[in-house]
Predict the 3D structure of the following.
Amino acid sequence: MSDETGTPTPSTPGPRPEEIRFFGTTWVDRTGHYGLRRAGVGIGALVLAVAGCFVLRFAYQGLAMADVGSFVNVLLVAAFAICSALGFSRTWGGFSERPDPEKQASMRGFLAIGFVGVLAAYGLRCLTEAPGEKLRRREYETAREQYERRTTRRTGNPARKKSGGKQRKG
């Protein structure tokens, strides 16, 4: 049994698709305004990334007005650039394979500082799919295939078959 969008309901036997933030399980059959959601999430992430750049610019201008020195200014720009690049690459890689939870926890500070890169990766991924859809679709289809193989019933009486694969006449 499935709901009006074709997504399996809790009463349907077998594995359930994993929900994706902002998309739920609509990624399975791409219903429920999936395209509009993808566009909205992508545009929203990119707008937030641009807004984050403006916030960082104001922070940089504040340091410039405080006259802290060129070393601190270069250090600040380098820190945000490196953390943003790291955030982008970690987030982008997380869409195609599951990140290690321990490594992800240790990177939380870098990802927070490099939030512009994280938002940019999220926004750019929405141009092609829901972020993480390919990974979850692959896992879901594998789980469905394994479930189908486990639940497929045999036909015929296996005791009537010879070891050579031919049946005895009788």
